[in-house]
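debug: dumping io for the single-chain case to check the tokenizer round-trip. Nothing else runs in this session.
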Amino acid sequence: VMSPTEQKGNFYAAVFIPEKEGGQVARVAIYHLDNFSKPTIEVHLPAKVKDVVIRWNFDGSALLILANSDVDESGGSYFGTTYLYWLKPESKVPTQIYGSKDGQVQDIAWSPTANEFMVIVGFQPASIALHSGVTGKQTTMLGNSRRNTLKYNPHGRFVAVGGFGTLAGDLDFYDRAEGNTVSSLRAALTVECTWSPRSEERRVGKECRSRW
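debug: decoded output
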């Protein structure tokens, strides 16, 4: 996954290397394209990680790695285990933000305009938190609710926080400028939502399509 902008005169690339038989765990290596012979940092992931989601922030100065395993050896979750890491491309070590003890990471989202990200984590009702993209640390706990979807609008002011799929379809619109929820509604049977380029949200339901 390429960084969205150049840093130090060229782009970074984040590469996932799957686990191999013989004890070699999965890892993510970050390369600067001026020197592809050696990674700037490698993140060695826990055993039995199957795949990862890699998300860069808007200016390519930091990224999130969400590692997924089908196995939960504690027996606490049918859905396996997730691990969320924050790091900068030239970091000496990654920072693990959430691990197996925190429950499933339901969703992550970077702001498109500010160096911050939001996370939904834990069993339902899950915790919804805002983190600094500069340090990776939590800055605001927004509460606990039955939600599993985060969508920043293109201008970065509003975040749609939804509970879709197997959840009831409740949806909140959180205003980053004001720091509060400006409206809430229920969109039953919704499975996916997206913002239009002008920040008018659209939803795709199980049986219909509509705009609001």
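debug: round-trip ok. The longest strand covers residues 49-56.
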